[in-house]
Amino acid sequence: MIAIFDFGSQYTRLIARRVREARVYSEIVPNTTTLEDLRARGCQGVILSGGPNSVYDAGAPQCDAAIFTSNLPVLGICYGMQVMAQALGGKVQLATGRREYGPATITLTDEHPAPQDAIFAGLDASTSLHVWMSHGDSVTELPEGFTLLATSDSNPVAAMGHARGLVGLQFHPEVAHTPQGAQVLENFLFGICGCAPEWTTENVIEATVARIKAQVGDRRVICGLSGGVDSAVAALLIHRAVGDQLTCVFVDTGLLRQGEGEQVAATFRDHMHIPLIVADARARFLERLAGVEDPEEKRKRIGAEFIRVFEGEAAKLGDVPFLAQGTLYPDVIESTSHDTAAAQTIKTHHNVGGLPSDLKFQLVEPLRYLFKDEVRAVGAELGLPEDWVWRHPFPGPGLAIRVIGAVTEERLATLRAADAIFIEELRAADLYRPTGQAFAVLTPVRSVGVMGDYRTYANVVALRAVTTGDFMTADWARLPYDLLARVANRIVNEVPAVNRVVFDITSKPPATIEWE
Length: 516
Hints:
- This protein has helices spanning 12-21, 35-40, 79-87, 181-192, 201-216, 229-242, 260-271, 282-289, 295-317, 329-335, 372-381, 386-389, 409-428, 481-494, and strands at residues 2-6, 26-30, 45-48, 74-77, 91-94, 100-108, 128-135, 137-141, 147-152, 159-162, 166-169, 221-225, 246-252, 276-280, 322-324, 362-364, 437-451, 454-467, 475-476, 498-503.
- It is of the alpha/beta class.
- The protein has 3 domains: 2-192, 3-Layer(aba) Sandwich (Rossmann fold), CATH 3.40.50.880; 201-389, HUPs (Rossmann fold); 402-503, GMP Synthetase, Chain A, domain 3 (2-Layer Sandwich).
- It has a 9-stranded mixed β-sheet, with helices on both faces. Strands 14-13-12-15-16 form a 5-stranded parallel β-sheet, with helices on both faces.
- Helix 5 crosses helix 6.
- The protein is globular.
- The two termini are 34 Å apart.
């Protein structure tokens, strides 16, 4: 396990992704995590993220200084390097005239004693390296025992190292703009930390199944299915671990996509042969959402109502102490749970921050520390049908957060019809799988139109399509104009309450993928 200390960098999550891509398990932890905590968790190395602060400011985030004298390998990136330098007696100052934002070239020094030289081993560079910088402060004086490893035209200390396995990099190896950054990180993981590339799909499944068995024992579990790949993979893992102790519950909230309920029932009952209960709760969810327009309130009410439904179904089954969910690592990060310290709350996910305080279940969350691509790999290995593995994500609150404003049966029907047309045309154009996520949004805006020589004043539907690898960041999909024209034409002709269609071309960040 590699622990990534979060000092609030926009790239912290990307560091975790890069370490996982090297087949080494990583977790983002608060910067307040102690050496004792790391030892208890079997940590093999630490990466200190960048951050927006200056280390010399009062109240600037620091970390347990004992980590630096523990013989535990540490890689400090940008602010993380400066934290390390200051803690060990070096000097960090405002880089007057030496600020670096964007592409830069660093020059490797001639003297690279082992093991410091391991960080740049095997790179396609004799003396220089193209990197990405983003800092206003610099290390101006090395701590005792450190070797200068690289400089840049604007910065006298671009990289430093110590024989105890401590390395500081002023640049960001985790971003694509540092072309050989992945190799730099692998050098730290394998050459300095001595990690093995064992974070594989097979090992993830084996470890997760063992963890579920240990948690659940001989007791019973219900798993809430949403119709998406996450809850489906969670159910398969739990079923492999405890077999018939699992009962899946699919809640028909009335907030589903077209044909959702039928597909879930067919897949789990007929294909996967896992016990499934379908709970019709359409009326009660719509009642709970009546008049609610705030998206955070929607998520909290939906999360609470899900739990009430699960409690009712569990009572029918007898003693069921466990509830399983398909919570992913990005859900945890964006909801700012206790697992992260410096991150800001982006939105509450209904299955993380939206759960009621009087929850009677113990949660089983086998995917809690997995990213989406890792979940899909596990699903494929477990035999989930390919159509499910590559289904676009569907939020637990369903169409309630794609109907902007008040949620009514009429507005849901309008959105459901428009969304079905969009997805149907994407599939017909063989663009469904290359697109990471796509859906329609019913906006609260009405616009004037002309149909059959008559004035109309009807709804505006927005189309959203993105490409992404991990759903932490995303870019808008460059869909062909003729496809967009066909979709828009069909929606305004086939969905009576709509007279205008627009296409969202905003990336994440600054936007999120979902509108609410």
